[in-house]
Amino acid sequence: MASRETPEVNGGSLADIAFLLLIFFLVTTTMDTDTGITRLLPPEPDPEQEDVEVKVNKRNVLVVLLNRSDLLMVGGEVMDRLALKDKTIEFFTNPQNDQNLPEMEEKEVQFPPGSSSLLSSEGVWTGRISRGVISLQNDRSTTYGRYLQVQNELVAAVNLLRNDFCNLYFDKDYDDLNTNNPIEEEIQLGIRKIYKMNISESDPKSIGGRN
């Protein structure tokens, strides 16, 4: 009996098929966007600039610490993360003129004339603005998720103050202000001068914590 030859599979086009599949998956696959902290970094300092020692009143700084165990400490005391927003609002407003909270200084902020009946006829707001700064520090072993949660509470507190002010004076949510509208853009800039995002974030350090 004559032997039957095994038919061979033509693999000459396999490389082309693989290449086409690779292109297909590259075009159709969606990439997850990494989430993180949105911050505008300060400009690089001038190398010829002289160092100037700045004295900061301790009452004007609130230290927020996250240790290696993700334990939150605010002003030297252990605090639940959910209480941080209210603590931040109290720190930046100092409603009772507490000597342990930041100094408040009287200032004037210009808004568009006629934009609110609660402002002067020239659109000038006069009130107290905080000198407070929050110093957010964390240990090198602090988890990224926990750090984001704490940072978001701080930012949410400032945004809430801005929103309440905007509702009171302009009967509108702060986030609804249209920056393409020159008047509303000026309103937004004015509110930012009153409630500044004074949150300082330092490099990770060894803060310690429970093992």
Task: Give structural notes.
The protein has 211 residues and is of the alpha/beta class. It has a domain at 58-201. 31% of the residues lie in helices and 16% in strands. The chain contains four helices and seven strands. It has helices spanning 14-28, 84-93, 144-170, 182-194, and strands spanning 61-66, 72-74, 77-78, 104-110, 124-130, 133-138, 199-201. Strands 3-2-1-6-7 form a five-stranded mixed β-sheet, covered by helices on one side. Strands 4-5 form a two-stranded antiparallel sheet. The protein is extended, with a radius of gyration of 28 Å. The mean pLDDT is 85.
Summary, kept brief:
This protein has four helices and seven strands; from the N terminus they run αβββαβββααβ. The protein has 211 residues and is an alpha/beta fold. A hairpin with a 5-residue loop joins strand 1 (61-66) and strand 2.
Quickly list its features.
211 residues; two-stranded antiparallel sheet; 5-stranded mixed beta sheet; 4 helices; alpha/beta
Largest sheet: spatial strand order: 3-2-1-6-7
Structural class: alpha/beta
- Radius of gyration, taken over Cα atoms and rounded to an integer in Å: 28 Å
In sequence order, what are the helices and strands, one letter per element?
HEEEHEEEHHE
Q: Main β-sheet, in a few words? A: 5 strands, mixed
User: Beta fraction of the residues?
Assistant: 15-25%
| Poorly predicted sequence stretches spanning 5 or more consecutive residues | none
Mean pLDDT: 85
What overall geometry do the principal axes of the alpha carbons give?
extended
Distance between the termini: 80 Å
